[in-house]
Amino acid sequence: MIPEQTEVVVVGAGPVGLAVAIGLVEHGHDVVVIDRLTAGANTSRACVIHPRTLEMLEQLGVTQRLTSAGIHAKQFDIRDGGRTLIPLHFGNLASEYQFVLMVPQQITEQILLDRLESLGGSVHRPYAAVDVTQDASGVEVTLDSGDVLKARYAVAADGMNSKIRDAAGLGFDHRDTLPLNFTLADVRVKDGLPHDIVQLYLSRPGMLVVAPLPDGSFRLVAEIDNPPEHPDLPYAQRLLDLRGPQGTAVPVTEVVWGSRFRIHERVADRYRDRHVLLAGDAAHTHSPAGGQGMNLGLRDAVTLSSALSSALTTGNETKLDDYALTGRAEALRVVALAHRLTRVATVPTLARPLRNAVLRLLSALPAFRRGFAEQLAGIGRR
After folding, report:
1. Distance from CA of residue 49 to its chain's centroid?
2. Which residues fall within 8 angstroms of residue 355, CB to CB, at 6 or more apart?
3. Is the pLDDT at 176 greater than 60, yes or no?
């Protein structure tokens, strides 16, 4: 039985929604989390957590368990075949976490759900939010079941196609989708790939990300025209042969999971309308370049849960206004970074040799390598 009234309704039980709920429950607030799925997703999707995000997740009590579950990748190499263009090392970051954490999203979600349940919280499934209305006292969220939840605030963490965002009039800024398609595959290989380094190959045929995962598999992400819905083993093998390491055989033995996606670049016009607030993909969506998406969403969640707690406890909504302004400004910066990385990685074929030559020159500058590493790690604007 779903409650009729609560302090905060969180719509969406992905990593962002779960993190918002944890922060609120830790502060002693009553929260109802709903999700349209009967169970959490079991595909890996986002797979990297950055140092700044790990720092902020300490407030939720999940960082230690997360770091125990993933690979500590201390290096990110930009390569062209067998040649390194830019080696980035995270060992000198001004953070306790001098690595990027490689951990599949379903593990991150499970750790967050376990934490929420240990605090007495839960997720109500399957319920889809179809509408929201507001008055001076709060919100009413209507569910597809016909139930209506009354609350002081509602958090839309229900993804890029958020019903709550649209019902509240918090639209996107109408940027067009980038004309780029990507294929994604988690594969197992016999040998030939390092298990502690993330690699971005900028070869003449096109870009390819190769990232290690804790179960021994590797995440492949490539920009490609007309990618298949479900990449098979021969397809993954061709990607590695054409775009990956050269002179070293990397036999693919299994495709664990695969998908395709199209890039969107959008930031909501506003993050707040009175009692409705946005977080995660409901607020911003962009290229996966640099693995920024889920990280930005998790940082949204920690900041927003603290701001909501302040508003609920004191009645002062100043911190909610601050979240709406600074969160959107940070999203615009991250979207711009992801856009630049995507454009560099996907320049036209004839321009790729020149691009690679420029990157080799920049790599000789320690300040460039240090600044680039800090941007990727999310600690450049603490």
Report:
1. 8
2. 202, 344, 347
3. no
